[in-house]
Design brief:
438 residues, alpha/beta, D-Maltodextrin-Binding Protein, domain 2, 2 domains, 8-stranded mixed sheet, two-stranded antiparallel sheet, 43% helix, globular, signal, Extracellular solute-binding protein, SBP
Amino acid sequence: MKRKIAAAAALATVLTAAACSSSTTAAPQSTLSTDGKGKTVNIWLMQDAQNGWPGVVDAAKKQFEAETGAKVNVQWQTWTNYSTKLDTALLSGNAPDAIELGNTQTAKYIAANAFVDLTSVKGKFDNSSSWLESLASSGKSADGTKTYAVPYYAGARVMIYRKDLFAKAGVTAAPTTLDELTADLQKVKDANKNVANFSALYLPGKNWYTAVSFGAGSYGVDGIIAKSDGKTFTGTLTDPNFVKGVQTWADLQKNFSVGGQTVDETTQDALMAKGNIAAIIGNGWEVGSVTDPKAGNPALAADLATIAVPGATAGQPTPAFLGGSDLAVPTHAANPGLGAEFLRIFTNTAQQTALAKFAIPNNKTLLPAYEAAAPANKAAGDAANGKTWFIPNSPYWTQTSDEVALQTAFSDIATGKDAASELKTAQDTIVKDLNSNN
């Protein structure tokens, strides 16, 4: 254990040094190889695929082995302590030939030249011209000119609501704009005024993903939270339009959410299952959590529906944070060309169409296949097809500093503090972190 900790710490030093140095040797460019006779490629994938879409993995393996003559050894991973395991593998020189990682993890590895440059072969990946923007941007260099990681699949936040409670309040059609949403929520609130602790829309103060989305809806989605000229980050949280959007979120929180100002979203599914919440904003899969037989209320299954969070204009949802996974080839992989070829096959149209039955595919071209797979997918598909946003593409973004700064700011705003002032405080922390290499 001590050796692993030491290895991870050493790589962290290497990553920091690489990110700070302008003279770091560039990562090699990839070529796609089909010369695999007698070779075995090692692929790290998360158990999400093993549990959710093993057939997609098997089909990719079969095609790859037939076309290259190589064998595929998929090593299933879990998210717990994954960064430490990956750091250790990269530092020891025993890197796999291709890996999956969360799209919030990629920036530090790209900055350290830990991944092969895929820019020259990007055009050979199916649907690369229609990759989901926010997912694709997480795999690019800080200046956006080079591609080091390939989008794999995504998830988007939607509004999950009780059709029965809305219908009893006289709302029979889903809202399509923020004005309609506000009017509908007022009707639901009035119809349930005698229900203790009732929330027409429960908005936890620390759920910064949702709060930032409302700011993004007014501000625009270029450079959400902070933007870079390639060298220096400047903050956008204090842009008057962003503040205006956040105030819209704060008004909804004040008028329709009971409690929750100082907590995050981790308990909202269980709270909704108790019956006194008409709507929440969360990932589409949270419908299953609300109706879970053990921790939720399966009796609500027929009453829940999802829509993309309405925006100011009909047909233009509030921008959603697009989280998901990327795929990359480590710089020191034993078979980088074969690793890249596996990723090309694993993300081709056939595999992504099959994947679309289970998750949002990596490109807009195949979103109709995802939406057709299940009625509940329409909302997330609409969100992904609209404007989306992602965290600043920097190795210096951290959960412990920057996400906490946002959580604190929005929690304070929800309790009644001035939005512009609290966002300025958060922005100061975030910009300082992002520019820590300057």
